[in-house]
């Protein structure tokens, strides 16, 4: 397929991820126009075949498909405001961080200016953009997604439509992202314990990966328990985790390592035991998370 047969794309926002997105479109043969507030990030992409929109309005006008990759929805609105009159009849795809409410507001703004909207998220790091197993998911009108799916697959082979609601990607981005910092903090705590003994953090990477693979393997079972609301046949109980609190505190004191970041989780386990969930699956903690804690 020649470049003339491929959908022209404009990419607005050339940070690390935006640059990777533009590069993937160029590599896939799409006529690609780029714009960034600071023009120094444009030249390497122009050298690879991109066109430089001298203004954001010129960049938007160049293509029927506009992909933005800025930090937030507010930043996206600010960047596109001078080009609002150029949006009519085009498709706007946002790939930025933000809340479901922000995505709904973005869709309303785009619609008010005559543009169709898909809210998306890239679930990988910039070097993975364009690879066959890189995941991106989108929320918005299915017909719009179907029209541009082949083009969007240039960014990653695992391209998913979540549903017609415009905020679904932001919702899943929030939900899926929750475990990241706790998992990293757990790894850092483990590294601190090893380093206190003069051992390299790298020595536990292999074992940590195996442990994370085990966690991944039980997620379908835990999700099923939550969806059914039945925690009576546990792989591991709330009580098992509750009993581990004392062991973890003892190991940290022996380290010595600061584990104060764990205290809210310990409090949740203590609350679960107090509510009679000791012998239930650890997935029963979901029931506490979905309702406010009682006032102190």
UniProtKB/TrEMBL annotation:
Residues 9-163 form the 6-phosphogluconate dehydrogenase NADP-binding domain. Gene3D superfamilies: N-(1-d-carboxylethyl)-l-norvaline Dehydrogenase, domain 2 (1.10.1040.10), NAD(P)-binding Rossmann-like Domain (3.40.50.720). The keyword Nucleus does not apply. Residues 166-291 form the NADPH-dependent reductive aminase-like C-terminal domain. InterPro entries: 6PGD_dom2 (IPR013328), 6PGDH_NADP-bd (IPR006115), HIBADH-related (IPR015815), HIBADH-related_NP60_sf (IPR051265), NAD(P)-bd_dom_sf (IPR036291), RedAm-like_C (IPR048666). Keywords: Oxidoreductase. The keyword Oxidoreductase applies. It holds the Pfam family RedAm-like_C. PANTHER family: CYTOKINE-LIKE NUCLEAR FACTOR N-PAC, OXIDOREDUCTASE GLYR1-RELATED. Belongs to the HIBADH-related family. This is NAD(P)-binding domain-containing protein. It comes from Nocardiopsis tropica.
